[in-house]
């Protein structure tokens, strides 16, 4: 069993760290939030006073932070505060696993710095949400060298069910934003179909029964149906309590648009989806589940 440093013990990181404890690893965790650290202690991990303390003596370090700027500051240090980063604090040969969802450019920049310092690093963003983090059934999309992937695999296996190596550094993040762009667009498409069906006097359940077995079939319809009734477990049945918030969908769609702009990819529907989620979240719905966008579409003419 290994000593694992874990930085970022929020909604996702907390249960992921708890699963590593359950697997028998000694988990040393740090978060800016005292509550998050207290939850780690309850789960059997060791809360630490700083990120540097959490990585001291660790063979593997997992980070689960909000966005690219947090990841960059935590790994490379913060010039403003003069605080050093994880790469300087950790022992040579430490394996870094960043599971945050961030932009591809920052993921590649931090991985290059880690490699230059003699560390292995993978970007390993996840899908599956808080439920998947708790159940240990996340999907990991991994970018980085083969050797680092192989070394990380036993740890990822304890936090997830599906683990895919998508290529070199940053490719895990690339896979994540491409996947979530499909999701954001398809949720709007399915929602628009229900809104049109309502206007045409076609029952929700009838549309579901037909489209779920026809060419309109997709995850946004059959697993996460945006209207109440057809899929009892979908957030529509609990007044769009998240789940995966509209704010998070907006974040991922913006990351996809940044990547599209910098790489010259043509993604008009991705751009439109980012606009629609921006308007929906801007009306005070950012904390609602992203499938609540159906309410916004219903309200428009
Ligand atoms: P969260 O806000 O619940 O957790 C982030 C944690 O990081 C917080 O506890 C915060 O205090 C901590 N933190 C911030 N800066 C820090 C620092 N400098 N040092 C130590 N701790 C610091 O967010 P979350 O829902 O756990 O999401 C984490 C990442 O996972 C995000 O990138 C998100 O996009 C991604 N993600 C989330 C979900 C989801 O359903 N929640 C699903 C897939 C991916």
Automatic annotation (TrEMBL):
Residues 3-167 form the 6-phosphogluconate dehydrogenase NADP-binding domain. The active site is at 176. It holds the Pfam family NAD_binding_11. Keywords: Branched-chain amino acid catabolism, NAD, Oxidoreductase. GO terms for biological process: branched-chain amino acid catabolic process. It is an enzyme of class 1 (oxidoreductase). The keyword Oxidoreductase applies. Pathway: Amino-acid degradation; L-valine degradation. It catalyses: 3-hydroxy-2-methylpropanoate + NAD(+) = 2-methyl-3-oxopropanoate + NADH + H(+). Residues 170-297 form the 3-hydroxyisobutyrate dehydrogenase-like NAD-binding domain. Its EC number is 1.1.1.31. One of its GO terms (molecular function) is NAD binding. The keyword Oxidoreductase applies. Belongs to the HIBADH-related family. This is 3-hydroxyisobutyrate dehydrogenase.
